[in-house]
Design goal:
This protein has 187 residues and is mainly alpha-helical. It has three domains: 31 residues, no CATH class; 60 residues, no CATH class; 54 residues, no CATH class. It is 52% helix and 7% strand. Helix 2 crosses helix 3 and helix 5 crosses helix 6. The longest helix is centred in the middle third of the chain and has 38 residues. The chain is elongated, with a radius of gyration of 40 Å. It starts with a strand and ends with a helix.
Length: 187
């Protein structure tokens, strides 16, 4: 078959004139080769060999072993395995682990900043022994001035009891001051 250059109509090969426009110039119709899709499996030892479900499962289980798994993951990700699919899986896993660590670090940093700011605003410091210290001029420091660790524990127990008596509602500052006064008077 040929195609007319003027009107682009297909005509038979033995025709001298276009049956549509009468043109005499033709070009050959390109032959499109038929594509035959072949489902060929790569060789078993080829780097393109398919990684089975069991191989992926085995690799994931090995990655769960704390130090050995991380070492294997890095070796596979850096090209230490024959199969490309396994290498790409290892690379994706390394990327996800790094992203997870960065997000965790960022969340921890933000939490530290927020907790530190709240503690500073309320006059609370962490002592060298790991306990809490309160500024004397802060509201909490003034309320807890002179209490020892055991007395503070008693106060916390009293607050829980009072909360239960209040029907589970939180205790307001007036009730807290009354409890502290009663605790001081009982000494």
């Amino acid at each position: 078959m040929k195609i007319c250059k003027q009107c682009h109509v297909e005509v038979e090969d033995d025709v001298k004139f276009c049956t549509s426009c009468g043109g005499t110039e033709f070009e050959r119709k390109p032959l499109i080769p038929s594509k035959k899709i072949v489902d060929e499996q790569p060789e078993k030892n080829s780097k393109y060999a398919i990684v089975s479900t069991w191989e992926f499962l085995g690799a994931m289980l090995l990655m769960c072993i704390p130090v050995l798994g991380w070492i294997l993951l890095l070796v596979w990700a850096l090209g230490g395995c024959r199969k490309i699919n396994k290498r790409n899986f290892a690379r994706a896993s390394v990327i996800l682990i790094v992203i997870g660590l960065l997000v965790s670090f960022a969340i921890g940093l933000v939490a530290k900043v927020v907790v530190t700011k709240v503690m500073e605003e309320n006059g609370i410091r962490i002592s060298e022994t790991g306990g809490f210290e309160f500024d004397e001029d802060s509201e909490i420091g003034q309320m807890l001035e002179g209490f020892t660790g055991n007395e503070l524990q008693e106060l916390m127990d009293m607050m829980e009891d009072l909360k239960e008596l209040n029907g589970g509602e939180e205790i307001n500052s007036e009730q807290l001051q009354q409890m502290m006064e009663s605790l001081r008077n009982s000494q």
